[in-house]
Design goal:
By secondary structure, the chain is of the alpha/beta class. The chain contains 11 helices and 12 strands. The N and C termini lie far apart (about 60 Å). About 40% of the residues are buried.
Length: about 325
């Protein structure tokens, strides 16, 4: 039987961002420098394939410093940690390496600056996400108020409505965040916003590529982990842009082929913590089942690169 024809629209950019690439290199370099095991507080990035590969090299993933011995290095994940965590590591005289994405660190610095100026912070983010926990943990308790939706804005009870600033999680939906920001500005006209958008370039670019391909496709697949905020947002953006079927898949083995029956054009992208090898795996799975035509939907080019921590660039 001949294979049915299908056009696979490939989003560009997709997959690893500079912050994720840097974080993974930090773990690899730490193992090369100090040997195994190296401890990592929380998953270095939210992707099981990446985490399992690093575990095979000698990384041990934990959720608290209490699980780490004093005499082995510990790395803080790309999502960032509350200020109390590196302070405790320093107190214990642990070798610790901060793999926080520099764009998340920018938000931390921003929050600290506003706090020094006497402003209470409003953070737009997802409760319980490690980036949100890390950012809120930069300031004393009560100094950061969390909102997740426009409805939350109406319930805010700040200390002084005239002395507020807002920050955002870096991996949110651009469209959803714009609505929350508008609600904040409407209720608190004096609220101070970031000098530059907090949502990172990679999140913005990947969402733009999905919006661009949405009118051309019958279905959208996003490669990423269930606990990856930026990957989940890509699915939401696809649905909001009109994709009748938009689904998150960890890898090729998770594709629901029945749901794609009758599709003539499928969009494929990957969250910022998903490696290109998983994209290749999915493309190969489509090629096995369809007479495949590939089209690239490019909306931006990325050449961002972040420096590695000095401790890893110095001799052992």
């Amino acid at each position: 039987m001949p294979k049915p024809p299908l056009t696979l629209h490939l989003a560009a950019p997709r997959g690893f961002c500079a912050g994720v690439d840097r974080a993974i290199k930090i773990v690899e370099m730490a193992i090369a420098k100090w040997g195994a095991p190296v401890y990592v507080r929380h998953e270095i990035v939210h992707n099981r394939f990446v985490v399992d590969n690093l575990r095979a090299l000698g990384a041990v993933f934990v959720e608290t410093l209490d699980e780490c011995p004093d005499d082995r290095p510990v790395i803080f994940s790309a999502h960032g940690v509350p200020r109390a965590v590196p302070a405790e590591a320093a107190r214990r005289r642990m070798i610790h390496v901060d793999a926080t994405c520099p764009l998340v660190s920018k938000v931390h610095i921003e929050a600290a600056r506003h706090h020094e100026n006497g402003l209470q912070m409003v953070m737009i983010g997802h409760a319980g996400h490690p980036e949100t926990i890390g950012t809120m943990g930069q300031l004393p308790a009560g100094e950061v108020l969390l909102v997740e939706t426009e409805a939350d804005v109406a319930r805010l009870a700040p200390r002084d409505p005239a002395r507020l600033a807002f920050i955002t999680q870096t991996t949110l939906s651009v469209d959803d965040t714009a609505g929350i920001v508008a609600a904040l500005r409407a209720r608190f006209p004096a609220i101070v916003g970031p000098h530059k958008e907090d949502i990172c370039y990679a999140t913005t670019n990947r969402q733009a590529a999905v919006r661009a391909m949405a009118p051309r496709i019958d279905a959208l697949l996003v490669i990423g982990a269930a606990n990856s905020s930026n990957s989940q947002r890509l699915v939401e953006v696809g649905r909001a842009a009109g994709c009748g079927y938009a689904q998150l898949v960890a890898r090729a083995g998770n594709i629901d082929w029945r749901a794609l029956e009758g599709a003539r054009a499928v969009g494929l992208t990957a969250g910022a913590s998903a490696p290109e090898v998983l994209v290749d795996e999915v493309i190969a799975a489509f090629a096995d089942r369809y007479d495949l035509t590939r089209e690239v939907v490019e909306t931006a080019q990325e050449d961002v690169e972040f420096k590695l921590p000095r401790i890893l660039r110095e001799p052992a």
